[in-house]
Amino acid sequence: MIKIRRMTIDDLGLGLSLTQQAGWNQTEADWRRFIELEPEGCFVGELNGRSVGTTTTCVFRKTAWIAMVLVEVNARGNGVGTTLLKHSIEHLKSRQVGTIRLDATSLGRPIYEKLGFVPDYELARFEGVAPRGKKSSAVVEAGPGMFADLIEFDRRMTGRERVKMLGRLFEEFTENIRIVRRAGEIEGFVTMRPGANAVQIGPCTATPDAGSVLLCDAFNRCAGETVFVDIPLDNTEAVKVAESNGLTIQRSFTRMSWGLKAIDNAEASWASSGAEKG
Ligand SMILES: CC(C)(COP(=O)(O)OP(=O)(O)OC[C@H]1O[C@@H](n2cnc3c(N)ncnc32)[C@H](O)[C@@H]1OP(=O)(O)O)[C@@H](O)C(=O)NCCC(=O)NCCS
Fold first, then answer.
1. With bands split at pLDDT 50, 70 and 90, how would you rate the model's confidence at 265?
2. 178: CA distance to ligand 1 center in Å?
3. Residues whose CB falls within 8 Å of the CB of residue 272, separated by 6 or more in sequence, listed in order
4. Global pTM?
5. Which homologous superfamily is 2-97 in?
6. 274: pLDDT strictly greater than 80
7. CA–CA separation, 155 and 189 (whole Å)
8. 70 C-alpha to center of ligand 1: Å?
9. Does any ligand 1 atom lie closer than 6 A to the CB of residue 70?
10. CATH for 125-271, among 3.40.190.10, 3.40.50.40, 3.40.50.280, 3.40.630.30?
11. Is residue 275 pLDDT above 80, yes or no?
């Protein structure tokens, strides 16, 4: 029998064991962030009384994201994943959301298609040891006084409303927020955070001029460490920067949406903030 219940901070251990089993990059801090940002919108799937699966949701006004769709290997194929998804969709409908988005792995995509999700575009996870490159004086650290402007810049460039998630990431990783400004105008920003397997670079939202400088700055700051960067393939310049810095594609994701068509500008995204945060 499948039962769905709310996920709480007490379930952090379950979340971590599922991400570890799947080889995902999320840490306890990532799980904690999901639950704290959406305390009513994260769920556990139980199969015959045992907690075996998870999903999280994150509402940004009329658009919501679903993430962390994970089911323990031994419990797969019993409908837990589908039931968790259906429950999340119902929950989001009750929050008057018009569009639901997610990044699908090849294992998840068939389930999402059956539930009405359609593909928007492809992203690739680039992986490699970050090289040391030329430092650019154009990139500087952004202080907390700039966060509101960065969030507004992100909204203008990507067409997405994600103040809740960006605000939280900026607070948590203040010293990692790097920006390019020309004549007082923001041209882009990048941030990064530690992961279980590699440093996750992103989000990076930027103009075509600033994007490559910001990605190279991030590589420099992580020189010698393994990094992951999730790049929309439509941003061909960002792909070139990753490749010319020795990174290779580890796997790909399909960004999908349900409901009203999602409009955003993939070219402005030089690094998605992780396959689960838009
Ligand atoms: C994707 C995932 C969450 C699906 O969970 P699940 O509980 O197995 O999903 P369901 O049982 O609802 O559906 C799985 C589908 O695969 C089929 N399937 C059959 N046997 C299966 C098995 N042993 N393992 C996985 N899937 C199986 C099912 O028939 C079902 O298709 P159907 O609806 O046509 O019957 C799970 O495979 C997983 O955790 N994968 C790793 C993490 C991942 O990629 N998550 C998706 C992120 S986008």
1. confident
2. 39
3. 103, 123, 202, 203, 230, 231, 232, 278
4. 0.93
5. Gcn5-related N-acetyltransferase (GNAT) (3.40.630.30)
6. no
7. 13
8. 9
9. yes
10. 3.40.630.30
11. no
